[in-house]
Request: fold
Amino acid sequence: MMQRFHRDFGFDEKIAAQIINRIHQLPKLNYTLHAKRETIEDKNAIVPIIKLSDVTYDNIREYTVEHGQVIKFIVRLQDRDPKTDFCYVIGMDGSVITVWATRKLSSQSVLRPTLYART
Reply:
């Protein structure tokens, strides 16, 4: 069974720390073809390339667990642009799966608490 956990709706801080420890053992992040395309084709903005150093504890917003293992997580960069935040879905193997830009004012209004499990 797959479960999603969001920082605003019940997020295990220990798991976020484990994600950081594991991902920083990798030499770099690798973009999928889809993610590469989305960096320039996103409807709101050109999405900057994320670096491994951008993956910090405070930037992890969400993670997904399947069969007891974290399979992917979302990093949200909020300090790059005054009007836009940038989101990145990253697999535990370091693959950047998809990216998108979102306006700062609309970001929280689209969250649906019923999608997320609680710790």
